[in-house]
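Support request, please re-run this one:
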Amino acid sequence: MKKIMTFGRYTKKRFGEKVYKIPISISGFTCPNIDGTVAIGGCTFCENDSFSPQLQKASPLDKSKKFYLNLQSVENPLLDQQLAQLQWQFQTLSKALKKSHNAKKFLVYFQSFTNTYAPLETLKALYEKALSFENVVGMSIGTRTDSITDETLAYLSQLAQKHEVWVEYGVQTLYDATLAKINRGHDSANIRSTIAKTKALGLNVCAHLIYGLPDEDASMMLHSLDETLNMGVDSIKIHPQYVVKKTALANSYTKGEFVPISLELYTQLLIESLKRIPATLIVQRISAGIENDSLLAPSWCYNKNSTMAHLRQALKANNIAY
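Re-run finished. Output below.
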């Protein structure tokens, strides 16, 4: 049976015990296809509030202050409050994990928004604060390939000399027509060049792929996987495309112009994908969903536990252990 290198198995091998990710959402961050730099309206599937549960639970920030960072920002009046927000989220979630799972080591995961889309001084303050927390062995930074500078990459490479540092890129697909259709704001050449630069600096790269994007068939999805593997990434996350309210994709869905991927097709694609992925490559995620009323479709993305149970059973039947 092929045993997939999950992130838990990887960290246990690397650190002698499981390392728990602490998801972080920092207000004041956005991305270039929301603020108009490369596009307007954001990706067609994106509604950031639905992906930022920690930000909704509590925030030291004054939400009346409509301030957003970008790569050209010359000041950040919210930095002190952002640092307080980071600390509150880490302390709250790490305390809960210690109690529920006896967690001893942590990795700070800058998850929501584009977490390199800010001046380097702001990033340094946030990253170094995160790495200063007790029992933190490193961090993982979710971002876009068009929103990270060479200067930031060089800085992260320095941090990686002493800490576990991951850069997570939303690749989604390697088809330019699809990238344009979902209003991504960049092309596949940008993805390839940025990942190459990141790998050249010795940084760990995790690539996110979405199965079920508009007008993509099974062969296209698997081709994107193959091309991503050929870039030499260290890890993969695979997500089904689901539809949430208040998005352009929701409008297409309600008009009957978009049909979400079925559980059956997604399962088949996942089985084939894990057969192709080398045993040494880390697979951090094989599904995704959202358990609140913002989800429109597909319904199978609502209950993560039942979906994972189905996927694990299907994988086991194909001699794959996840």
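DSSP finds eleven helices and twelve strands in the chain. Residues 50-56 have pLDDT under 50 and may be disordered.
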